[in-house]
Amino acid sequence: MPSPTAQRLNTHFIMDREDRKRNKNIGKNFMCRLQCMFSHTSSSESRLSLEDTQQWSQSLERLLESKYGLATFRNFLKSEYSDENIEFWLTCEDYKKIKSSFRMSSRAKKIYEQFIKAESPKEINIDYHTREQIKRSVKTPTMHCFNDAQKIVYGLMERDSYPRFLRSDVYRTLLENLAAADATKG
């Protein structure tokens, strides 16, 4: 009969093997979901590739420029219950495109209520001074009234969320699966 230590090591080895198998399946399933999300475009250029996925590790900007990268990053943040920063950043990008002053005013108030106001549903982590400055500027909003907060949030994602994403099982498994798919092609 094996010793208790040997039994624990064997159990740990089996769990590691099962975790790796589960992660590989998660990566394959996620890859399928990503490609299905964007399947309305049928050209081979729009397909998720190993090269594109590897470029995500060059910078957060590169990751966010890629439709697959953005979708993967958002899903990763949602899985960690920390998607408020990317949601705020994307909302600000959309806000900057508004031309109508009436729509801008209405949208600025919604953004303030949702992300900026203390105890808001998706409160972002910004300093008191920035929060107060936005509170004042929302009364007569401009297209730049969220810029300071957006820069802070981008910096937080760049220093915290983005490196965690690059180390995540989701990203690493996605790279492995794409590399394996490339190896079988050529």
Short description:
By secondary structure, the protein is an all-alpha fold. The chain is built from 9 helices and no strands.
Structural features:
186 residues, mainly alpha, 0% strand, elongated
Oligomeric state of this protein? single chain
Query: What is the mean predicted local confidence, pLDDT?
Result: 85
Give the biggest beta sheet.
none
Q: Strand content of the residues, in percent? A: under 5%
- Give the helix/strand class: mainly alpha
What is the helix tally?
9
SS elements, strand count: 0
N-to-C span? 49 Å
CA-atom Rg in angstroms:
21 Å
Q: Which residues sit in consecutive blocks of at least 5 with pLDDT less than 50?
A: 37-42
* H-E string: HHHHHHHHH
Shape assignment: elongated
| Residues in helix, % | over 70%
Structure description:
There is one protein chain. By secondary structure, the chain is mainly α. The chain is built from nine helices and no strands. The protein has helices at residues 4-37, 50-55, 60-65, 67-79, 84-95, 101-116, 128-137, 147-167, 169-185. The longest helix has 34 residues, at 4-37. The protein is elongated and about 60 Å long. It starts with a helix and ends with a helix. Mean pLDDT is 85; it is low at 37-42.
